[in-house]
Amino acid sequence: MIEPFTDVVPSFFGMLNQGPLTLTIFLHTIIILPMFWIYKQEKAKLQDK
Amino acid sequence: MANENLSVWTSIPFWRRSAAWVTGFASILLIWLTFDTMRQISMGTDNDLKNGVTKRVPAPTVINYHIDYKMSQKRGHEVPVIGKKEPFFGKEWSPKEAKELLHLGKLTSQAKNCMNCHTLLGNGAYYAPDLTKAWLDPAWQKGGAMQAMTGKNTTEEAMAEFLQHPSKYPTHARMMPNLGITEKEAKGLVAFLKHMSSIDTNGFPRNFSKTVDQFKAGGTNAH
After folding, report:
1. Could you report the predicted ipTM of this complex, rounded to two decimals?
2. pTM for the complete prediction?
3. Which residues of A fall within a CB distance of 8 Å from B12?
4. If contacts are CB pairs under 8 Å, which of residues 191-220 in chain B contact chain A?
């Protein structure tokens, strides 16, 4: 499933770039995940009020 | 419970924090990507060439080496292969000389507006042939039609001769106009083209070798 790294200059983003969408999906995922945490914190705050 | 219907979606602090997180992360990512790209496109050194270190953009002294373009099964496209040393205009160029020659070539390519007709590394017009891998075009190699036409014995001399008197040589319907390129500028331009052909462009233009094979089999154009 994971393709070997083939680019000339080693790069973290080059490694993530497995295909046309992988980098986009990865970056969106790590941006969205902490928002669940923010959501839960805010919910807890509202419930405490 | 009184709080059963409370909604986080209408909470301003939630959206404020989310926006701050997304904007902050995206800013850091963009800065990181900028430095990552700079590392990718920075030019190699003469020592990299001597030690066989592969860089996307090799040092100007790459003009002292034979450049080949081979299919890489691993990467799924052609990659430039820097081979043995070969004389360029009959001599070996020092790092300083090579850098100056390449700089002159780049300035000339801008002054004469090559991109008004040609394409360089994907930028420019589509009126005249793509020049990204022009150095590797078999028409300019030994036995090629363009080299034979100019009556020169090497690729660089043939290209330099053509660049100085393009209107003298019939190419095809869209003939290159005479741009008043001097002998020195022509040498610079050829160095610029040779260096450009050694840049790893992730296989751009696609299927170059295929069109070269077609050309050798009697096709019309290697581009």
Report:
1. 0.80
2. 0.82
3. none
4. 200
